[in-house]
Structures are given as C-alpha cells and as structure tokens.
C-alpha cells in the first residue's frame, strides 16, 4: 500500500527532519493507539460512502510538557519567588518548550483524505453514528498506528471524538412568556434608568430577583466605586463558538441604558473571527442560544469598563481557538467562555491536549474563566445519566477557573431553576492546590452519591457568581436570561478590575487564578451555603460551609479580593 508508506514516511519526515528514518517496510506492526466507545445516545447506523473526504488533524506529541507544568505551577503560585513572572511565546521557545501550538503548522498536520484511505492508514473502520436528536457523525471507536509512531503522535481526529459542538450555557427565564413581549418601545420607555441615582448600594432596594440588573451586580460584588486606572494596559476578552458574534446594536442599547459612559465601546471593540464564519455559522435558531454572545459582552463591559474589551468568534472546535490564540503575541489578561460540553464526549487525549494549551495560557499570564454548566451533576444540558454523573469540559480542566451560578441576595444561594454545573473529572486528577479544600468537603458529605462520581478527579466549580434572570438586551429587546453563562463573564470582569489595580501598582496580573483562589484569596469570597447542584434526577451535591461542589468558595467580594491580591508574596 503505497499510501501507507507515504503517510508514515511523511510523519517521520516532519517529526525528525534530521533523522530521515524511512521505514524499511510498509508492514510495520500496528497497535491500537486509542479506543473510546461512542457515548450513550449514539447508535452505529451505516457505513460511510467510501469516497467521502475526512479532514484529518494529526497532533504531534508536545515536547517538554513536564517543564511546562513546572513553570506553570511556579508562576501561578503566590508563595513562589517566580510568581507573576509570565513568559511570552518567544520566551517559552527559549526554555525549549515548543508547545501546542505555537503555530498551527509546527505541531499539527492537516490532510484531507477519502474515508477508505484513512481506514487503511489507521487500520480502522468508520461508521455513520446517529445521535438521539437525529444528527450524525462519521466516527470509529478505535484506531491504530505503527508501534514505532506511538511516541510521536498525541491524537488524530476525527476518529473517536463524539464531541459535536459546544453548547452556550444560557437559559430563557421567561419560560411562559414569549421573548417578543418586551418590545423595543417598551425598552426605552419603561426600563428604570439604571444609571442614574446615587452611588449608594442598597442591595435590598436595588436587587430584584426577577431582573438582576447591572447596577445590582456592581453593588453586590463591590466594584461600583472602583475607577479603573490603566484601562489601556488591561484587557478582557470573551469567546463565542458556532461563528456567533455580538450584535453591536444590542450592546449599544444595553450600555446606553445601563452604563451610558461606556456606550462608545459598542461600536469600537474588536471582534476577531478565527474561523470562516460562513462555514461555521450553525443552525442555532433558539433565540436564547443566540443571546449568548450579547450577554457575555454586555456583562463583561458593563462591569469592567473602561478596561479594554474584545471578542472572538470561532467555529465549533475548542482546538481551533486554542491553536489560534496561542499563536498570538498579545492576549487579554482575562478571557471568559460560557460554552462547554460533557467531558465524556471527547477522548482523553483530546481533553488532555486542550487542557495543556490552557496551562500554556496560564504560563503566559492569562486568567481563563469558564462557565461550569447548566445541568448540575448532569453536565451541560439535562440528559439521562445512567449510573454516573457527567462532568463538563473545559470546567473539568485543572488549569482554568470554573464558575458556578447563584441567585438571590442577602444571602445568595445556589440556583435552583437549573443545576449549577458541578462535579469531579474523570479525565483529570485532583490538582494539589485544591486537595485540602475538596477533601474537607468530601469528608463532610460522606458516602452520598458514592460510585456516581470520581473522588480523585479535579473538582469544580472553583467560585460562583449570579446566574439567574440577568437583564440583557438581545435582538433589540430587553429580556432576562439565566445560566452559568452570566456567571462567567461577571466573575471575569471583577478579576479584570483586580488586575487593573495590580497593573497600576506596577505588579504583574493574577494569571492562572486557582492556586491563589484556594490559598490567599479563599476568604475573599462570600460563602454560599444553601442549594445544591441538581441533576441526573438527584439533588446533586449540597452547598456547604467553605468550598463546595455547587458554588466553589462562593461569590466575589471586590475589596477583599484586592486585599488578597496585594497580600501575596512578591520579590
Ligand atoms: C488491523 O486490525 C485488525 C483487527 O481489527 C487486526 O486483525 C489486524 O491484524 C490489524 N492489522 C495490522 C497491520 O495490525
Ligand atoms: C462609594 O464611596 C462613597 C464615598 O466613600 C460612599 O459613600 C458610597 O457608599 C460608596 N458606594 C458603594 C457602592 O460602595
Ligand atoms: C439549517 O437547518 C436546515 C433545516 O434543518 C437545513 O436544511 C440547512 O441545511 C441547515 N443549514 C446549515 C448551514 O447547516
Ligand atoms: C478517576 O480519576 C482518575 C484521576 O484523573 C483517573 O485516572 C481515573 O481513570 C478516573 N476513574 C474513572 C472511572 O473515570
């Protein structure tokens, strides 16, 4: 088979340019490289048409992954002398770390091949699989490579990944009222003028549980009185998938009403398209799903203004965004993403590769914030769970900060209209920084849900913020939506302001947050002690004193976060 020879030779040539080790025979011994059965809900149906083309992505193994981990831990650990000494992409190369994704050509090989060729290269058989919602994918449950190549290749997709598309983590809250009820005219006439009035924060008066306003959020988390000092040197970004992007007219309308001093941003913030949007603009027709990008931007700008703001619009694939972003020289210091999927829809090698990329962003000094999911212990969306809870990814990656959702004020409690995404990873081990906090919690809950979750996995969320009936403007209409979708940009915007204070004082930004959150900052949150991460026809995990698998350490308190941000060890 000449094609197999070419393939293996091609990979080798790319891997070992100085050691052209042409295989002497094309009958090299194959062994299974990866096996990942179709998750529940997928049924094998027919064989694909043999000349159908598959666009294969081959990820070569990263070099020096251990060195990267060491640096990431040091620069993110407030008690380490290297804390805050982030590295640029170039400096990483100087450390011999030629990772991810420094460019899409270095570590990734893309080839378009007909199915039958891919089948012979990987000694596998592809099938059409159908999901319960009728959508189909061409996949296989295992693939092989010549044994001598196993050490050079991390993953090849699409093979065993049943991950289809990430989901926006947003919910309609006017369940019984069509969104169109709020007409545009109403918007301008009947909305209370949120921006007027004194700077006094009377939560009881200001915060309405049926409509969580921007002003309420700014008061509740304590950023109302803070004036950003270095907005031009500080930035927050949000990411949208499916080729979705903000409608500037919505952002303008929202800011005009709720943060009038910021209104110009609506027409000036950059929206960077990392994929061909026409290829990716998906059939998301639910107006709630479409509201995601607007909500993320409105909350992020509304809270962090005048901090610089940007948005990405990307395709369906987390890898594509990661590869793109890692190749940029200059990045926002805080990035919020309100999209996710259930961890088990990806094979381990893929989530591992993504999480490594997030770790690298930590080394670059970026705080990555992800929504934790809207179905409690069932993950992103309600689905039957069988005998196991479903963790969500990227929330389950130990190199990012996952944000759960609360509702109510004085006190805030975990949301109950949906479950705040929470649980324990099956792909990632519990990182050291959270062992004490999480073990304390596990002792407290004893054998509740024993066997349904992985007690040694990375536990999430890390923190929480409001995620119920948040006021937004979308499609020209004022409405309110819920979801950890709101929680993530709210939390991210508060962190952007803490970064502002650090930069203004000549200090590095906070970077990867978790070692700090579980350490010096653990008391800088308002603990949430009621509610649970409902899902899988169970009550999920209960909120508790201190860290819990519903709301993490709780919601941000800006003054205390500032204090914690300035109390850390620094050389
Ligand atoms: C390919 O896989 C089949 C089993 O699916 C196995 O019998 C065969 O030996 C494999 N071929 C090679 C070259 O390893
Ligand atoms: C802002 O500061 C002023 C003056 O110190 C104070 O009176 C007011 O209550 C503060 N507002 C908030 C929201 O903390
Ligand atoms: C969108 O959905 C319609 C109906 O379900 C389908 O006919 C059309 O091909 C879809 N468009 C894209 C770009 O997938
Ligand atoms: C539980 O988590 C550990 C650590 O990540 C992992 O090695 C193990 O495979 C997981 N167990 C299951 C059943 O997924």
Automatic annotation (TrEMBL):
Keyword presence, Metal-binding: yes
One Gene Ontology biological process: proteolysis
Main location: secreted
Keyword terms, alphabetized: Calcium, Glycoprotein, Hydrolase, Metal-binding, Protease, Secreted, Serine protease, Signal, Virulence, Zymogen
Active-site residues per Swiss-Prot or TrEMBL entry: 292, 296, 485
GO CC entries: extracellular region
An example Gene Ontology molecular-function term: serine-type endopeptidase activity
Cofactors required: Ca(2+)
Residues binding Ca(2+): 527-528, 546, 548
Classification via Gene3D superfamilies: Peptidase S8/S53 domain
Catalysed reactions listed for this entry: Release of an N-terminal tripeptide from a polypeptide
EC category: hydrolase
Domain Peptidase S53: from-to ranges: 211-568
Cofactor note: Binds 1 Ca(2+) ion per subunit.
Record's subcellular location: Secreted, Extracellular space
EC number, UniProt record: 3.4.14.10
Signal peptide interval: 1-21
Function description: Secreted tripeptidyl-peptidase which degrades proteins at acidic pHs and is involved in virulence.
Designated name of the protein: tripeptidyl-peptidase II
Provenance organism: Aureobasidium pullulans EXF-150
Native organism taxonomy: Eukaryota, Fungi, Dikarya, Ascomycota, Pezizomycotina
